[in-house]
Write a structure and sequence with these properties.
The structure is a single chain. The chain is of the alpha/beta class. 25% of the residues lie in helices and 32% in strands. It contains ten helices and 22 strands. The strands form four sheets. It has a seven-stranded mixed sheet with strand order 9-8-7-10-11-12-13. A seven-stranded mixed sheet has the order 18-17-16-19-20-22-21, with helices on both faces. A six-stranded mixed sheet has the order 1-5-6-4-3-2. Helix 8 crosses helix 9. The longest helix has 18 residues. It is globular and about 65 Å long. The termini are far apart.
């Protein structure tokens, strides 16, 4: 186990670790780049693969660069920021190809994000406090730990988010608000969540508290923050006193101002609430929506569309002007309520909204659709949901995924049922991380 080796990194795994090979065995080494020649120490191994710890970079890859964030190594959120951006795009294409290798599918070149700094418009910081001084700290967890890195500057999110978090650190003690202690399940402030609009620069602040009711001190604290920042359009409180890793519960109350922010996508203004899903990189998301819309325009004349796992019905609303009818299905009631407002404001009358679990809807509906747009969470779809989609879809499934592994699993199942995958198009939604978004076109016509 203490053996030291010199190896060359060939590629990255789907979890961002470098892959080297030695005597026929695959070795995974974190914080390495394709082309690096490195000295490692084996830390864990079995018959077919092993894990190694990086000891020294003997010859750096031509793609290795200096990270623009000084916290990159400590924070761990931007796992591959030390790799030049063009190579990141190649890596993400390769990750998709590797995950779908057994299916032998065509994978396009990764479409880059329009912005690679300041792109992240949803921030979720766990909050705690130092043991002795009781100073409030907030940031991301160190890799593979629940130890918070106190981040005061993050170049991948809007600058105002750093300013809001810093004000919270300074101001919370004035209102006798303590940081959360995960081990003891004590303390008041658990998380700070910010939804930031790329269009207006306005922000919705959500204070997640370890309580089930609103106290006077939290109310005054929230009002203080709201009054201090012109660009905070609203403050909400989320109540989470459960011993859980879940950040937001379904119990959120508005405290000051609006309970949503507005974001513009493809010329349409959407409303985003505390508990609603919306892509963290709006400008890259717009690339995806335009890509899907262009494909539908070129291949269909006013189709009927099922928008499954719809969130705030963004796909349905954006596709409304090129469709005969759209049914958007989403179980989150807050999302559907906000979508109703958007439909009314934009005078869109061919989108039908269902506040219902997608799997349940598919089991009961008798409708048929030319196209189904699938945009499930990271865990992908159940076989029952996929069977339902096959039952109700006449021509094409457009599968939008943020997880190549579950995408590959679901595609394999669809292919076994007679579907044909036309191609997969990757998009860079999460710059400097190993995550990759994809749009897959699936043909059901025989």
């Amino acid at each position: 186990m203490e053996q030291e080796l010199i190896v060359e990194i060939e590629e990255l795994s789907n979890l961002g670790a470098g892959i080297a090979k030695y005597n026929g065995k695959v070795i995974f080494i974190e914080n390495t780049c394709p082309g690096d020649k490195v000295k490692i120490k084996l830390t864990k191994q079995n018959k077919t693969y092993a894990f190694g710890q990086l000891l020294e970079i003997i010859t750096p890859s031509i793609h290795r660069i200096k990270p623009f964030c000084p916290m990159q190594k400590i924070c761990g959120s931007c796992q591959i920021q030390f790799i030049d951006y063009n190579e990141q795009l190649q890596i993400k294409k390769q990750i998709v190809k590797d995950c779908t290798r057994n299916l032998e599918l065509e994978v396009g070149n990764t479409i880059p994000s329009p912005e690679i700094r300041g792109y992240r418009h949803k921030i979720q910081y766990p909050v705690s406090e130092t043991q002795n001084s009781k100073r409030i700290i907030a940031g991301y967890y160190k890799p593979k730990t629940h130890e918070i890195v106190n981040i005061k500057y993050c170049p991948i999110q809007p600058k105002i988010c750093d300013e809001i978090i810093e004000y919270i650190r300074i101001t919370a003690p004035k209102y006798n608000i303590s940081g959360y202690n995960e081990k003891k399940h004590s303390g008041i402030l658990r998380h700070v969540v910010i939804r930031s609009s790329a269009d207006s620069g306005n922000n919705l602040l959500i204070l997640v508290i370890n309580d089930n009711k609103l106290s006077k001190q939290i109310k005054q604290f929230g009002e203080d923050i709201y009054q201090h920042f012109d660009k905070i359009s609203g403050v909400c409180v989320n109540f989470n006193n459960k011993k859980t890793n879940l950040i937001l519960t379904d119990k959120t109350e508005p405290l000051c101002g609006e309970s949503y922010i507005e974001e513009k996508l493809c010329g349409i203004t959407f409303k985003i609430g505390a508990n609603t899903f919306f892509q963290v990189n709006p400008k890259s998301a717009e690339n995806i929506f335009q890509y899907v819309k262009q494909y539908i325009k070129e291949n269909f004349d006013l189709p009927t569309i099922l928008d499954a796992y719809a969130g705030i019905a963004a796909f349905g609303i954006v596709m409304a002007d090129i469709s005969k009818k759209i049914v958007s299905v989403e179980e989150n009631k807050e999302s559907i309520s906000l979508a109703k407002d958007v439909l009314k404001i934009n005078k869109i009358n061919n989108v039908e909204l269902h506040a219902e679990d997608t799997a349940k809807y598919l089991q009961t509906t008798e409708e048929q659709f030319d196209i189904t747009i699938l945009d499930p969470p990271r865990k992908g779809c159940t076989k029952e949901s996929l069977d339902g989609v096959l039952k109700v879809t006449k021509s094409k499934i457009i599968y939008v995924s943020c997880n190549p592994q579950t995408l590959a699993r679901d595609l394999e199942y669809l292919i076994s049922k007679g579907a044909k995958v036309d191609f997969i198009q990757p998009f860079d939604m999460f710059c400097h991380t190993y995550h990759v978004e994809t749009v897959t076109i699936i043909d059901l016509e025989k």
